[in-house]
Amino acid sequence: MAEIRSPRLLMEECRRYTAQLSELRMLLEERLHAARAELARTRPSAVRVRQARLDVAAIEAALERMDRGLYGTCTRCEAFLPLDRLRLAPHVQQCASCAGETRLSA
Ligand SMILES: [Zn+2]
């Protein structure tokens, strides 16, 4: 049976999600800035350039998903991504299972 919640609780939930999204957007923008700064270094190593380019692409894709209202769900199975996972790696777009990180779970 669907849970019935008061408008006040729904508004609180909405505010909480909006605050979490703002926090994650800030994290993404900080990391984008850092990755672009790495690319702008005068003599970066090839490995660092490759990693910085991958970071920039992943972060830009995450920001685009945020703008389209798709951020926070797995791109494969559409499950919600845990906030802890997003705080650690805000550019991640797959759940641990789809990313192949849960080989030990039955
Ligand atoms: Zn998934």
TrEMBL record:
InterPro entries: Znf_DskA_TraR
Keywords: Metal-binding, Zinc, Zinc-finger
Residue stretches making up the Zinc finger DksA/TraR C4-type domain: 69-101
Regions annotated as coiled coil: none
Gene3D superfamilies linked to this entry: DksA, coiled-coil domain
Zinc finger (dksA C4-type): 74-98
Protein name: Zinc finger DksA/TraR C4-type domain-containing protein
